[in-house]
Amino acid sequence: MTDTILGVEHLSVRFGASTVVDDVSFAVARGESFGLVGESGSGKSTILRTIMGLSPDWSGTIAVNGVPARGTPRREFSTQVQMVFQDPYASLHPRHLIGNAIAEPMRIHRMDNVEARTLELLALIGLGEDFAYRYPHELSGGQRQRVAIARALALSPKLLLLDEPTSALDVSIQAEILNLLNRLRAEMGLTFVIVSHNLAVISYCCDRLMLMQNARHVETLSRAQLRNRELDQDYTKAFVAASTL
Amino acid sequence: MSTMPTHTIARAQVRAAQFKQIKSFCRRFARNPSGMFGFFILVALLFCAAFAPWLATHDPYLPNLSGRLSAPGADYWLGADELGRDIYSRVLYGSRLTLLIVGLVIVTSAPIGLLVGVIAGNFGGWVDTIFMRVTDVFLAVPKLLLALAFVAALGPGIVNAAIAITLTAWPPYARMARAEALAVRNSDYVNAVRLAGASEFHIIVQHIIPMCISSVIVRMTLDMAGIILTAAGLGFIGLGAQPPLPEWGAMISTGRKFIFDQWWVATVPGFAIFIVSLGFNLLGDAIRDLLDPHLKARP
Prior knowledge:
The structure holds 2 protein chains of 2 kinds.
Chain A: E1 4-15, E2 18-29, E3 33-38, H1 44-51, E4 58-64, E5 67-68, H2 74-77, E6 81-84, H3 98-108, H4 114-124, H5 141-153, E7 159-163, H6 171-188, E8 191-196, H7 199-205, E9 208-213, E10 216-222, H8 223-227, H9 234-243
Parallel strand pairs in A: 3-8, 3-9, 6-7, 7-8
Antiparallel strand pairs in A: 1-2, 1-4, 4-5, 9-10
Helix pairs in contact in A: 3-4, 3-5
Chain B: H1 3-30, H2 33-50, H3 52-55, H4 87-123, H5 125-140, H6 143-154, H7 158-185, H8 188-195, H9 200-236, H10 248-255, H11 264-291, H12 293-296
Helix pairs in contact in B: 2-4, 2-11, 4-5, 4-7, 4-9, 5-7, 6-7, 7-9, 9-10, 9-11, 10-11
């Protein structure tokens, strides 16, 4: 593969006795948008959390931009990859102003011009400057998710992991967020890994996708293959049929 | 240089946003009549303590043997005690001692409990085990008994009484803060800053403690009544403030001997304790209605 930004090889994750991700390997090319699809409990979100170092017990190798996930200090790793969480209502601190939430990663990394960068990021996600001085409870779900995206972009990572970025939002807001994400990817040369159980979202946003079932890899498809129904595995056919794309 | 003006504007706007939060809190508080009543009692207590020398009619320490045990009247508004000291003036000065003890206990026990609980909850593992077992040991001993033992060891006195009460008052805060920290430490917003490379110290100070503060404040105001009663109890058995200090519990203790013939000697300080405890309880209830995160979830 040419210019891999995320390489995952033989990844297994265990929660106690149960194996949640079982020997999964995949690679994501720079600038690509990669989808992880599967039913609930198939281990797709766990893969993202493991890449970010939120699962304690895993084996295999993960490398982002050539930096190994195991053994790299989180502070250093954090400039390579950031994550946007599923629930916008739970991902912002209820007692912190929006501006502080976005500025905080930059303050932790002691960057310069934090205030100015915060306002730039707000403009980038399409919110006005006055949003910096509001509390999360004054914002709608879609606005909060935009803020979460801005916070993830604050450290200018090259890779962004999105865990069901739209599943908590209603349909019209979903489209808004997806368009925002597509625009940001084009403007900033980002690479996305998007987890979703919604094939419509994946086929709209992703160049390639990987289907998972019961902690295992089932099939990797390109967008064209998905749209032309060139499916090899029975489970893929059943999954796509059930989604009534 | 050019960033300086935007910087100061941002600070002012942040302060305005925070001020708005406080204002909305005050407005909601003002709608609660019993809470306002409690608040007025607290304000009255603070006023009495601050202006005791001007409000008092007599010197609280000066005996007047000709006026021993006078009934309430024009000269002694609330009567005089067994040495002829004006009870009204002594109760006023006693409010200072009460506030001193409550203040000392709250200022020490709440932060200690908060820190122990938050550290235990955030780190888990053996840190959690050690901290919480120590907390359990303190919780296992009856409060007043433990305070008695400490005062007996340290010697009687106001500050020692406050230290003794502190030693018995912090464990509930630790329990509560730990429970809050456990709930918050793996939430998405804490994970998000963790992923940004924040140190655990930063997470505790900036993210976990602000989420515990409201529960701690609620617990603090509700605890104050209990602290006043414990302090008065220690004074009553002679282990708190020493004579001639006009501590309310000690005053009740001396009035006990005359309770059938000169009822006012014990009743007036008792009534003061009752009013102030009631005020703190009402205030605590009102603040809990506004701040308790578990009540907020309900519509």
